[in-house]
């Protein structure tokens, strides 16, 4: 039972923080973002909410699986520390891009975010294979988001 509670807690934390991040950037998404020149591969706006919701769910489950693993406590703390760092960077990217309207600064930051997700994946996969695999769609999406961010910066500089 304790395992299910910890996984559920991590799931709720990730989805809630993602939801609040979306609320904070909503105005800019509706006003500033439409004024930008975007590349041909820019997805429609409606796709972002369901994709991010699914990713936050997967991230929460992954973190919960690591938290409840029977691995070395030091390794679990290290993995969850990297998870917290990448999650903070994820939130910071939204502020830099949508809050400050600064695609270049957001681009620099998203590269650091990608590196932290990669390290989180590497730590998670050693502790719990499923947790590691659950991070891969997030890594793929942030790879795409990095290319999209770079393209938007380039087209609007």
The number of helical runs is: 5
Helix content: over 70%
Mean of all residue-level pLDDT scores? 95
Q: Spans with pLDDT under 50 lasting ≥5 residues?
A: none
What structural category characterises the helix and strand content? mainly alpha
Strand portion: under 5%
Q: Provide the succession of SSEs.
A: HHHHH
Number of strands: 0
Q: Any idea what the shape is?
A: elongated
Largest sheet properties = none
Distance N to C terminus: 53 Å
Q: Kindly provide the radius of gyration, computed on alpha-carbon positions and rounded to a whole number of angstroms.
A: 16 Å
How would you explain this protein's 3D organization?
- The chain is an all-alpha fold and 157 residues long.
- Helix content is 83%, strand content 0%.
- It is built from 5 helices and no strands.
- The chain has helices at residues 2-31, 48-67, 73-99, 103-127, 129-156.
- Helix 1 packs parallel to helix 3, helix 2 packs antiparallel against helix 5 and helix 3 (73-99) packs antiparallel against helix 4.
- The longest helix has 30 residues, at 2-31.
- The radius of gyration is 16 Å and the shape is elongated.
- The N and C termini lie far apart (53 Å).
- The model has no long low-confidence stretch (mean pLDDT 95).
Provide keyphrases for this structure.
157 residues
Provide a brief overview of the structure:
The chain is mainly α. It is built from five helices and no strands.
